[in-house]
Amino acid sequence: MSDGEEASPGADGPPPGGARVVAQGLRRDHGHGILALDGVDLTLEPGEFVALTGPSGSGKTTLLSLIGALDRPTSGSIAVDGVALHDHDFDRARYHQEVVGFVFQHHHLLTHLSARANVELPLVPTMHRRTARRARAAELLEEVDLGPRVGELAAHLSGGERQRVAVARALANEPRLLLADEPTGALDSAAAHRVLDLIADVRARRGTTVLVVTHDPLVAARADRVLHLHDGRLVDRPAELRAGSEQLSA
């Protein structure tokens, strides 16, 4: 490679493996009697696909936000690949650029930009040549079967297509940890299956660790493990969810 050239993340050698996440004694108190998490211990092994379930208000999104370093715990600790997320010298920007990717229920695309431009955005801090960013974005959109739609405005895409763009954007910097918050919640069953296929494919090919918050038994059926939060605590997985997952897997 000549001087000044930029490589796409993961272009040389095998893709990065998944991250290991260890959370201990996590507590998040929002005040005014609102205790979102109450002493959560959780370990995610590299390459594992874990579904996190529970009723609304049980703390699922709060836990995802803490692991994603979008929020800080009131007490307790989180380490990703041995790096403590909330130490004073923790580099949050680097963590978001190099380690973790996010997929949300509502894709949060900029609808006035094209699919390609939306996927390019997380590459701006790390890939300074626009031609390299455009090539990387086009490659990712091809991966999610949106190659012919790279120039289409996000406003003109279907809900399922927008969520696939969001998955491509989350993968732009080859994250070792993928966090998804209800990624199929706003989709019909066909689009939901497509997004789940993409996440499973990413995990299989890249070894990415995946944590998905969901109410959807389709997601639970795909996961290696299903965890259940209730009133801010991890509890045994409910029998009805186990039965639903087994039925879907049959």
Comma- or semicolon-separated keywords:
about 35% helix; alpha/beta; about 250 residues; Rossmann fold
Q: What is the CATH topology assignment of the largest domain?
A: Rossmann fold
Alpha-beta classification? alpha/beta
CATH superfamily of the largest domain: P-loop containing nucleotide triphosphate hydrolases
Q: N-to-C terminal Cα separation, in Å?
A: 50 Å
> Which band does the percent of strand residues land in?
15-25%
Task: Kindly describe this structure.
Belongs to the ABC transporter superfamily. This is ABC transporter ATP-binding protein. Residues 1-22 are annotated as: Disordered. Residues 21-247 form the ABC transporter domain. The chain has 250 residues and is α/β, with parallel strands linked by helices. It folds into 2 domains: 16-99 and 175-250, 3-Layer(aba) Sandwich (Rossmann fold); 107-173. Helices cover 33% and strands 24% of the residues. It contains 8 helices and 10 strands. A 6-stranded mixed beta sheet has the order 6-7-8-3-9-10, sandwiched between helices. A 4-stranded antiparallel beta sheet has the order 2-1-4-5, covered by helices on one side. The longest helix has 18 residues, at 189-206. The model is unreliable at 1-15 and 240-245 (pLDDT under 50).
Fold blueprint:
Elements (H helix, E strand, L loop, with lengths): L20 E11 L2 E11 L4 E5 L6 H8 L7 E6 L2 E2 L7 H7 L1 E5 L10 H6 L9 H14 L15 H12 L6 E5 L7 H18 L2 E5 L3 H6 L2 E6 L2 E3 L3 H11 L1
Parallel strand pairs: 3-8, 3-9, 6-7, 7-8
Antiparallel strand pairs: 1-2, 1-4, 4-5, 9-10
Helix pairs in contact: 4-5, 5-6
Family: Belongs to the ABC transporter superfamily.
Pfam family, one: ABC_tran
InterPro entries: AAA+_ATPase, ABC_transporter-like_ATP-bd, ABC_transporter-like_CS, ABC_transpr_LolD-like, MacB-like_ATP-bd, P-loop_NTPase
